[in-house]
Each structure stands twice: as C-alpha cells, then as structure tokens.
Amino acid sequence: MNTVPVIENRFWQHDAECMPRPQLESLQLQRLREAVARASALPFYQKKFKESGFSPDSIKTLDDIRRLPFTLKADFRDNYPLGFVAVPRSEVSRFQGTSGTTGKPTWTAYTRGDVDRWADLCARFLVSGGLRPEHTVQISFGFGLFTGGFGLHNGIQRVGAAIIPISSGNSARQIMTMQDLRPEVLICTPSYALKLMDDILSGNIDRASIALEHAHFGGEPWTESMRERIESGLGIRCWNNYGMAECGGPGIAGECAYRNGMHIQEDHYIFEVIDPDTLEPVKPGEKGEIVVTPLTREAMPVLRYRTRDIGIVYDDGECPCGRTTRRMSRIMGRTDDMLIIRGVNVFPSQIESALMQCKAVSPHYMIEVSRPKALDEITVHIEMEPSFFSDSMREMQQIRENIDRAIYGATGLHMVINLVSPNTLERFEGKSKRVKDLRNLKF
Ligand code: AMP
Ligand code: ZN
Description:
single chain; alpha/beta; Rossmann fold; GMP Synthetase, Chain A, domain 3; eight-stranded mixed beta sheet; 11 helices; 30% helix; binds adenosine monophosphate; binds zinc ion
C-alpha cells in the first residue's frame, strides 16, 4: 500500500468520507432498506421478489443483500424505456443515457435530490485528486446523454472552480483553448488524452504556454503504464474515477492523494465482487465481476447491478488518507471483452500493459482477432514511436521480438505483431474501440 501522498490530502465531505466503519455499515443497512422499499414499487422487482419469496421488509443485516435479485443490462432493455423509474414523471429532474453509439440508449433518470447528491460525489473525487476552487477546468468529455460531461460539470460547479464546457472533438481548438484560457485541469477519456498529448508533443507547442497540472480520466479502462506515459509526456498528474450510467454515472469511486486504488463511495453504494459463472462472492481480495447497488438514488432504485466489469475490492486495511471506505482496483477488463484465444483468457488491458513496457511503441494500438484457419489468432497493430522507426530489417525484427516477449510474458500467447508508421491508426475522441473481432463477421 502506498504510504506517501502524491499531492496534499484533502476532502470534500470529510465526515462522510471518513466515517467509522460501524457507523458507515449501519448507515448502509438503513439506506439499503430504503432502497429496497423504493425498488419494491417497480413491477420488475415485484415479480422477482414474488418468484423468490423475498419480503422487502426482511432485510436484517448487510449480508441479506445476497437474497436480492441481480439486475442485468438486458433487464433495462426488456423494460425500455422507463421501467426502472420509480417516481412520478413530475419528480424527474434529469435524463441521461449510456454512451453506446448504436441502438437505443439505456435511460437513467434523476430526481432533484439525485442530481444534488451526484454533484457532491463527483466533487469528492475531484477534490481528492487536486481540484481547488481557484482552478479552471476544461471539460473535454462529450456533453449530452453521456453522464461524464454534465456529471463532472455539476461536481466542478459545486467545488466553485471555473468551467470551460468545450465538449469533445476538434483537438486544434482544444489546444488553442488550453493556451488561451490556461486551465489547470483537464477532464476527458484516457484515449482522448492520448490524442491531445500527441498533437501537443508533435505540434511544436511550447509546454509553458499550457498550464495543465491535473487530469481526471474515466469512462473506459486504462492501465498504470498508460498513466505513466501520459504523466511523463505532458508533465501532469492523471487521476482515475469510475462509474456507470445505470447506477448514476461518475462519482461511484475515485482515487485519493495516496493512489491506493479508487475509494468506493460506500455511504451511497454497496459493492460486491462475484464469480460471474457461479454468481457466488469471490474470496476477499480476489478479482471478479463488480456488482453495484446504489443506496440513495430515488428516481431509479436499481438493485445488485451486474456491471460486467472485472476488478478487485481490496481488503487490506485502511488507507493512510483517513478515508474508511474500501478501495477498488482499476477495471481489468469486462466479462464481455475477455477474449478466449486457443483456450487462454486474454484481456486487452494485459496486452496494453505489455506494449507499454516497450519504449519503441507508441500508446496507439489495435487488437484484431481472426480465425484464418481453424485456430484463433490475434494480430496487434502498433504504431511505433517515430524516433525508433528504422530502415534496418534487423532492428525492426529485434523490436518485434521484444514486443512478442513482453506479450507472451503477460498472456502466455504469441501474437502476430504488425508495426505500422506513426499516425496511421484510428484516434478516439470519446471511448476507444481498440479490439476488432473479425471472427463474428460474416462475409
Ligand atoms: P457508461 O455507459 O458511459 O455509463 O459506461 C460505463 C462503463 O464504462 C463501465 O461499466 C466501465 O466498463 C467503463 N468505465 C467507466 N469508468 C471506468 C474506469 N475508470 N476504468 C475502466 N472502465 C471504466
Ligand atoms: Zn485513500
């Protein structure tokens, strides 16, 4: 566990963030009962409770959460559009949606109270990651249905910092704004940060013309090695935060000054970690699928949402920052993006970590899965760092072998390594799509 803070340790709602565990757990129990009572107004849960013989007033301990039904992504689709909204329409103050770009979004609704609490939850991780009222923040998350833009906007407003709601896209204008308005803080997806970093570093931009000190990234998986790349490339500190629209959006967990994982906002959320096959809890400290129960959401009381995200909830004692809440690891992958290649389970994040160990490769890569003959094959297309590009076949072969060794070390698999010229792979303004699975395509 890290015992040295990276920045000054500060709080937004000190008493709530540092509540003694017994008090926190009794608050969770009381709020869980209230959440179950709200959920029992929905036909979806009424049916589930009836099927399992569960009585909504029978929650006696926090372990009783395991008697509640799970909620799946498909349940939102089956109850589209508003089957999970538990308040009269007149009490809804905001609709947001999931960030999928195709098909219908999953709507998520908030009462005025939900929006208010959401702002404080976002303020918590922003402040613990360095935001101060005197700062200016450039929000390069998409504004719109995506919970990132407006969620962080409300949190920053609550802290009292100045906001530039520039939204995503048009990187030349993003950089011009950074130079002209000199924000100290940037909000975006890690993949958009990579794009901005490339444009800044390759565009002869004087670093002194940009005042950035911190960036807060969320919305998609990224690795510790990616953090090191962006931090050293831009000379800033990058912070991780986690959330999903179905449970309210960003603000569910975020890092503190000690960077010991992301503190889960346990006064508002209960986390479980389960084995996705058996649905039983994993052993403490083991990785599994994260299941989230929001405790205070009024408009949409979702119970035990199976996120499909894979991670660990640490069970190694209190963080030196003073928060009493448990912490979670980075998201290591999703049950639905895990690739099974010749019987081996591979997550794209393992490949990313391996690639980032090799100095010759840039952070831009694309993983392609195909089945040329009977066996699955992965090809990793990787942009090289321009300074390592060489006409010598031998040097290029050496680089390929280094990458192969790193990937084999991380995954136990050999993959086809395709080194491509700088600036040839797709760039992303929001969430990235770095895996192409050609096995499902029908020609
Ligand atoms: P959305 O539909 O935009 O609410 O997407 C939520 C999903 O984005 C989560 O279930 C995660 O898969 C992913 N996500 C959000 N934040 C992070 C993060 N910090 N690290 C990894 N994945 C994240
Ligand atoms: Zn901490």
